[in-house]
Fold this sequence. Notes:
By secondary structure, the chain is α+β, with helices and mostly antiparallel strands. It is 56% helix and 19% strand. Helix 7 packs across helix 11 and helix 8 crosses helix 10 (316-332). The protein starts with 7 loop residues before the first helix and ends with a strand. Mean pLDDT is 77; it is low at 426-433.
Amino acid sequence: MKLDDLHPVLKRQLTKCHFSDEELASEKLIFLISRVNQEYIDGDQSRYLKERALEISSTEMKEMFDTIQREKRTLELLLNDLTEKDKQLSEKNTELTTQRNYATSLLASIVDMLFVINKELAIVDVNDSAINRMKKLKSELHGTHLASLLSNTQPIATLIQNINENGSKAATFVTFATEIKINANETIPVFLSASIVYNDTGEIQNIICIAKDISELKKLEKENAEKMILLTHAGRLASLGEIATGIAHELNQPLSIIHTNLQTLEMLGLTQLSEQDLKELISSSIRQVDRAAKIINHMRNFARQKHEEAEPIDLLTPINAAIGMFNEQFRLHQIAIITNYEPDLPQICVEEHEIEQIIVNLLSNARYAVETMQKKMGPKFEMQVIINLKYDKEQKNIIFELIDNGIGMSKETLDQCYDPFFTTKPVGEGTGLGLSIVYNIINSLHGKIEISSELEHGTTVRIIIPTGVA
Length: 470
């Protein structure tokens, strides 16, 4: 047996025993040594496997530990993130609760009636003001169709239809005046505004309707209208006072003719006058009496406080009547009045005396302006007032223009010219009501008034009145 082929440990042990070559050649010893050598080899393999197993197990455990640590850190991060999100959600929930409470208190504090309706115009919610004003329970109003409360819901239906057809291009709110039915015997006028509320997908979710009671406003409008009638009447009387001199001259002419006719009759007597001459004197006197009566009647009608039903009229009638009040006055003061009327003007539905008052006030202002300019420029200054009347077929408006070459107005005066009782005339020569009254009359006719003026360069007043012609 060769010792070099044995396990190193066994080799060292056998070397220490000093066996002879003969002893080592013994079969029994060889068998024993072989068995021990195999045990050593098997032990080495077993130890190797155990060490390898331990090594592998340690690596896997280390990897598992590292994985667990990573998962732990990830879980810690997730926990921190969830904690932060929970905190944010808690804060948002608190904020939403605050906002909800604020919105609830805000809606409760609104004095106007508020109705939340769906696309079918059925009520889904109301505020306290609506409940108190309607004198009904919230459950009674819930599900009620808005048409059973409002006299007109068509604007809201049209709003919804336009949104369905045109999408985001359509308007999202509408306002209109209507009446709301409180009970079988009571209705109140309201000004209603309806606004669309969309859901997350951009579809109509609800419509918020706010109805403002305008009963007091209607009452004030009526009172203001009555006061305006009185103010307009005062303006007519003031205008008569300003043109009294001209009217006196208008009356003086027929009276002079009548006086001359009577003097002729007195001087010659009935015997010296032929039947034909006598008829002519009488006819002439009657015509002048009629002329004077017509002037007096027109003055009486102009000064009378009245409110007629508007009906279609030819604007030339009141315009010429108003100009007739100034003809003699303008002639005596050498003021040229030039009229340019477009033929075949359409009739317009207005009150005749209102148009007269507009023209009288504007002519009165124009007369003062040109006379003031003449005082500044001297007697050679030619005073002139031009009146234009035409029809804008495209816009369907009648346009009235009065142009004078008078003293004009500064920018400051122009800014205040519509204010009641503002006047640049000396005390006793003007009330300051003229343009204020003109403005209110034009406004009531749904028209516009435009004034352009410059100091020492005259004034142009342009009035635009819609005819309502289809």
